[in-house]
């Protein structure tokens, strides 16, 4: 499903941005229950965690009907506060009022703030104090010291098993192309060079502002979509990421190729948004060269335009590219432009 602007359905917006979504987990239904998730520490001084706002995030979910699954927790969710007390690495960039709350009620328990009817003249100050406490940044100490403080806080509340003060975890969910998750990919693409990775990610941000939203109603984009020359295909292997299909013969038949790059971006963004782990978004690409004749003119410029947009803006997201059938001339071209081929 395409992600379109709410005010204009014909505009395709990027499937990921830097705004997190908010999630609150309550243990009121079972104060002694375990979360049902394995945590990942971001308190090891790693460069790849430079933009991570939390000291702990969800690494994986365990099997069974757990609190985490009932609450809608997902891999990558960052734990930023415990019972209203912040355990952040970085201060929030957005006010909570600007963000979407995706909290799911657990066993019918409402997790919304019920203080709306409180008319106490000091309630405004109390709310402000609570906000500051929730947004508290914990200074980094020795490796894993802040992470261990977070775990100690969680364990102490669970051990008390006070039904009036059940464990409440505040989490933030960041998209696959937020800098929280994308930074690692840009860092790998530049072999760990922080300055080069920063330059690459900054250029990507600029490109993103210029590229989106994409007008889906544009006739050039519609021609590509309707011809199915760029689309998704089902691959009968469950362990493979979703696959972008490119029918090169159909692309070459189009009167105009102005919509090709935009259609490719739309398809790629849509599939990357399905990643179960936002830190590792992946797609495969199948380039169908059936009925393509080199003698009649191989439109190299089309592929150069597509990969001119893909490679610098979606680094480390290509799991596998398959081209079929291929000639020696085609293989030679792709090796020239440094694109990996699986034949």
Can you give a write-up of this model?
The chain is built from 10 helices and 13 strands. The radius of gyration is 24 Å and the shape is elongated. Residues 105-110 and 112-121 have low confidence and may be disordered. Helices cover 33% and strands 18% of the residues. The longest helix is centred in the middle third of the chain and has 18 residues, at 194-211. With 343 residues, the protein is an alpha+beta fold. The strands form 3 sheets. Strands 3, 4, 5, 6, 7 and 8 form a 6-stranded antiparallel beta sheet that branches. Strands 10-11-12-13 form a 4-stranded mixed beta sheet.
Q: What number is the mean pLDDT? A: 88
Number of strand segments: 13
Content of β-strand? 15-25%
Helix content: 25-40%
Shape: elongated
Backbone CA Rg: 24 Å
- Series of H and E elements: EEEEEHEEHHEHHEHEEHHEHEH
Show unreliable segments.
105-110, 112-121
Number of helices: 10
């Amino acid at each position: 499903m395409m992600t379109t602007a709410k005010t204009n359905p014909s505009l395709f917006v990027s499937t990921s941005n830097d705004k997190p979504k908010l999630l609150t987990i309550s243990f009121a239904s079972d104060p002694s229950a375990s979360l049902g998730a394995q945590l990942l520490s971001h308190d090891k001084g790693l460069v790849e965690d430079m933009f991570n706002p939390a000291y702990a995030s969800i690494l994986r979910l365990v099997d069974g009907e757990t609190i985490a699954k009932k609450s809608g927790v997902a891999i990558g969710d960052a734990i930023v506060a415990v019972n209203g007390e912040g355990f952040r690495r970085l201060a929030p960039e957005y006010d909570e009022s600007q963000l979407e709350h995706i909290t799911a009620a657990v066993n019918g328990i409402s997790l919304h703030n019920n203080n709306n009817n409180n008319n106490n003249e000091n309630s405004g100050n109390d709310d402000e104090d609570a906000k500051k406490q929730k947004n508290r940044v914990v200074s980094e100490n020795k490796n894993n010291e802040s992470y261990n403080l977070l775990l100690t806080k969680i364990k102490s509340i669970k051990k008390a098993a006070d039904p009036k003060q059940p464990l409440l975890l505040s989490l933030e969910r960041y998209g696959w192309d937020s800098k929280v998750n994308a930074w690692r990919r840009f860092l790998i693409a530049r072999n760990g060079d922080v300055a080069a990775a920063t330059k690459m990610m900054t250029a990507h941000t600029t490109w993103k502002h210029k590229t989106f939203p994409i007008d889906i109603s544009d006739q050039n984009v519609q021609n590509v979509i309707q011809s199915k020359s760029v689309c998704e295909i089902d691959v009968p292997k469950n362990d493979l990421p979703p696959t972008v299909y490119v029918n090169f013969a159909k692309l070459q038949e189009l009167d105009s190729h102005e919509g090709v790059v935009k259609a490719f971006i739309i398809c790629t963004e849509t599939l990357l948004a399905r990643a179960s782990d936002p830190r590792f978004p992946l797609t495969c690409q199948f380039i169908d060269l059936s009925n393509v004749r080199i003698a009649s003119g191989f439109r190299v410029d089309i592929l150069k335009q597509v990969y001119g947009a893909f490679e610098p803006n979606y680094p480390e997201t290509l799991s596998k590219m398959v081209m079929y059938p291929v000639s020696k001339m085609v293989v030679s071209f792709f090796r020239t432009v440094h694109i990996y081929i699986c034949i």
